Each structure stands twice: as structure tokens, then as C-alpha cells.
């Protein structure tokens, strides 16, 4: 298990984490910030210059998950992880990856009033012999207060909040330990096993009466997606698409969907690639749209969007697949793609 201590810079996450080691038997301090420091030394300056923070590096987010798994083969756990995590898509990616490896997460937020945070940041210890560096760190911490306030909307829905404004680190740790023992902060994320070989996936495009396409927002990975999922062994792909739509949205389509796109996705380590199919599920009547269901552990939301809106929401690979699928739907002929490029 991982006890993830989230919160603004200056909320006392690290000091609380150290106190928590005494209260949770077998626990180990796990600081993903050390992974970020290592990447700063190993990655070329050009790549580092492309991101604002090491959390923006996909390699860091994957290392957070893989390192947690490695640590839990050496120590009994839980891992105490003091790390600010303010971008919901990064939370999805990391916590979803941990869930896929059967590592449960207790998400705790140490919340402190902003006036107290500002006082703590102003009173941070100086970096010995580096006045300019000390001031730079303070300025950076202050800049993060805005993003923290903006992130509170989704964090409050996702995590267990502990107000530490008037608590000592020891008292905060005691509150966290009690919450963990009571099962608070558990993240009910769908456990999608990590692929070990190429996979076959089936997605279904559903449309409203204005011909806008339905996209869903999974809780266990970043970015918007089409309804659908991995085809199980021995399962027909079209039937898999129907099953996924019923499981994810509560919609039972009456007829087998027509194939729009077959796309071979090449392996790109650490991903294995495989075949990706998109089917045409047709238009949904208004009453069926009103009855759409969302399992809270799997999907956060859904939206019908235009083609241009979808381009701003989907990762490039999925967007490319969608645009070919829409073209195939208009022309009435499926398209065969390899790495997103039409064959023949």
C-alpha cells in the first residue's frame, strides 16, 4: 500500500511523513522527488528545456510507479509518499498504474490555510551559501499556491482532507494514521492489468442527433478516450465493443456495430502496441443519452463533441484514428491503417 500525502508546498508533507513512520509499522519513506532529481542529471538539457517541471516528464511518472513496485518487493510497506500532485491527468496516470500493479493507494491531502502557507514559505531555511537560490525556491513555492487552489475542486472529490492549519507535524501524522486504519482515502480506481504482449482493443463511436461523437474521461489513465477496451481471449472484437459500451455507459446496442478503422499500433517501449479497431455504434436517441450511466470507479465524465473539439481533447494518436474513422463513416468504407497511415 501507498499512503500518498498530497498538499501545497509548505503544508508539512515531508515532516509529517517522517512522523508517520513511527505510527505505521513496517512503513518506509518513498520520495518520488529523488527520481526527478536523477532525471535532471541523466536527461539532456534540450529535453529538460521542453518541460516546466519534472512531473511533466512521462519517464518520471512511469518511474514513480515502477519504483514503488520495486520497493515493495524489498520492504513490507506501506510506502509513505510526500509529493504534491496537482494535475488530475498525472494523478490518473500514476494511481492507475499503481492500481494495475495491485498496489492500493490511500490519498491524503494535508490542507493548510493560505496565510499560514505564506508564512511557512517565507520562513524556509536558507540554502547554505546560496541566498539567490533560497529566494528562488521561495518564489517558486509561492507560484504554486494558485495551481493548488485551482486543483482543490478535483482533489476534494478524490482524497481524504486533513486540515493541518493548527496541527503540529506529529498531530497531523496521528490524524493520517487514524484515517489509514479506518480505510479513509482509498482510491477506487479500476484495475487494468499492464499488457505483457501486443493487445487487441475495440472502441465504439457513438453519436448524438447532431452527429457529435461521444468521448469519455477515464479515471485510470490520462486523456479522453472512446468507449471500449481490450478484447478478451476468444472474444469477437465487435462483441467486445458492445460489452464495453454496456459496462461503461449502461447502453445496450441492438445490432453489431460496423467496422470503421483497423489500425496497427507499432510497439513503442514500454508499450507493446497491437491492433486497434473502431466501430460505428450509430446515433443515440435523446432518451438513451439521458440514461447514460457512469461507473465512478472507471469513468469521470462524458461529452459529445464536434470533430474540431475532439482534436483539442484527444492525444494525437487517438485523434488521427478518429479523423480516419469519421471519414470512413462518411464514405461508407472501412479504412486499414498501419501506425495511423492508410495502407494501399
What does this structure look like?
- The mean pLDDT is 89.
- Helix content is 40%, strand content 21%.
- The longest helix is centred in the C-terminal third of the chain and has 16 residues.
- A hairpin with a 2-residue loop joins β12 and β13.
- The protein has two domains: 180 residues, P-loop containing nucleotide triphosphate hydrolases (Rossmann fold), CATH 3.40.50; 144 residues, Nucleoside Triphosphate Pyrophosphohydrolase (Alpha-Beta Complex).
- The protein is an alpha/beta fold and 344 residues long.
- It contains 13 helices and 13 strands.
- The strands form three sheets. It has a six-stranded mixed sheet with strand order 8-6-10-9-12-13, with helices on both faces. Strands 2-3-1-4-5 form a five-stranded parallel sheet, sandwiched between helices.
